[in-house]
Amino acid sequence: MTAKVTQGTTTRFITYWPYVSILTVLMLVLSLVHAILLGMGKPLTSMTLQVVEGEPTALPVMPLKPEVMGALRIDAVAQIPENRWVTYEIQLRDAQGQLLATGIKQAWKEAGTWAEDGESGSWEEADLWAGLDVRPIQEETVTIGVEVLEYSNTAGQEINEPVPIRLTVRSGVVDHRYLLVGLGGTLILSIIAVMGVSASGTLALSKTIGDSDLIARSVVGGANSLVKMKVNIKSDETTPRSLDLHLSLKNSAGEVIYTHTYPVQLSFQREKGRVKGATGYVQDFFLLEPRTSYGFYVEVYPDQSVDSTSLYLRDGVSTLRPVSAVQIQAL
Amino acid sequence: MYQILLALAAVGVMTSSIFAAYTQTSALQLRTEHQSLHWPRHGTRMSGRYSGGRRAWEPLPIRNGYQTFQGGGPGSGK
């Protein structure tokens, strides 16, 4: 042979950028754990008020001052019987009793029965919670309260009863919804980054034949260019348990400079317990010097069951981890 | 090159979501006219706004418009 062949592990082509994306996912997971464990803030008060329509009802006065982190969170839940609707408002008043902020909620709770195709059952649905997060820009003395604007049954008849509404107030609450959105975003970016590595470099060869023997030639390699070879094999229902792939690499003069036999691990497609076919692949990395035309001769053994063979060569690829590469240098 | 852009984008998304979560940009900023970043919780809508320089809360007319509210759920004819 007119070339020196060595096999070794290379770290030269590792790209670290996808790890930055993965790190942001981990950071957001940690933030989310922190926000759920510690970002729930400090409970200030939790009280159930009996609220009569048209009469604002409030909790005791509390001081409020600007904070760097978190917000004052007011959660409310109307405790009403089935088939009632209530429109209520969370209200903040300042020291003078003037409205400072209001948030309105149309809450309802409905239940009933259903019957369809001889089956029947009951259903119950409700939307009773309201929430308001506020951040002050100056020191305030605030009164948090609720007012019922309308209370009726499903028939639209007004109900003159007090509505029990439980108010819960916490300070320094972190809004973890942003972290969920951020987590989704960074996860998508990380998946693209990781998938991008296996599709890195330029596609130098892409050839598929409906046979077991494939010959292709392309200009690839060079001292700073990692070449990735991938062979996909499809085998029919008469497939053996395993196949072998024999590779011969030829230089620009047509001389064989490297031969290797790879075992092909197959994954089988089954239908009603019987093997319908199998697919397998072989992947390897090469460092070819000099950059010139190389011929790839691929043969699959045994060849009777082989439906198709595809060869893909990528030139100038990067990797996520150290990879084992075949280094071939012309003498 | 695009790997660098992806990493920068991920760092940007991470930084802005952690910042937004911990500083609660979604909360109602008291006495502030612009509430473009407000993100309601539990379907609770603002029923007022801060007007002009007075920074006083001005209730919106929608507060009085609930005579037609028919609740939700399967019975609402959606």
Describe this structure in words.
- Helices cover 13% and strands 59% of the residues of chain A.
- Chain A is mainly beta and 331 residues long.
- In chain A, the strands form 3 sheets. In chain A, strands 1, 12, 13, 14, 15, 16, 17, 18, 19 and 20 form a 10-stranded mixed beta sheet that branches. In chain A, strands 3, 4, 6, 7, 8 and 10 form a 6-stranded antiparallel beta sheet that branches. Chain A has a 4-stranded antiparallel beta sheet with strand order 2-11-5-9, with no helix packed on it.
- In chain A, a hairpin with a 5-residue loop joins strand 15 and strand 16.
- The N and C termini of chain A lie close together (9 Å).
- The model of chain A has no long low-confidence stretch (mean pLDDT 93).
- With 78 residues, chain B is α+β, with helices and mostly antiparallel strands.
- Chain B contains 1 helix and 4 strands; from the N terminus they run H-E-E-E-E.
- Chain B is elongated.
- Chains A and B meet through helix 1, strand 5, strand 6, strand 7 and strand 8 of A and helix 1, strand 1, strand 2 and strand 4 of B.
Descriptive terms for the model:
heterodimer, A: about 325 residues, mainly beta, 2 helices, about 60% strand, B: alpha+beta, two-stranded antiparallel ribbon, 1 helix, 4 strands
Helix content of chain B: 25-40%
The amount of beta strand of chain B, in percent, is 15-25%
| Number of extended strands of chain B | 4
Write down the overall geometry of chain A. Answer: elongated
- Count interface residues per chain for the largest interface: A-B, 73 and 50 residues
Biggest sheet details of chain B: 2 strands, antiparallel
Structural class of chain B: alpha+beta
Discrete helix count of chain A: 2
Major sheet description of chain A: 10 strands, mixed
Rg calculated over all Cα atoms of chain B:
19 Å
The N- to C-terminal Cα distance of chain B equals: 50 Å
Query: Termini of chain A, distance in Å?
Result: 9 Å
Number of strands of chain A: 20
Q: How big is the Rg of chain A? A: 35 Å
| Overall shape of chain B | elongated
Could you give the order of the helices and strands of chain B?
Answer: HEEEE
Taking all residues together, what is the mean pLDDT of chain B?
Answer: 80
Structural class of chain A: mainly beta
Number of helices, where a helix is a run of at least 4 consecutive DSSP H or I residues of chain B? 1
Low-confidence stretches of chain A: none
Mean pLDDT of chain A: 93
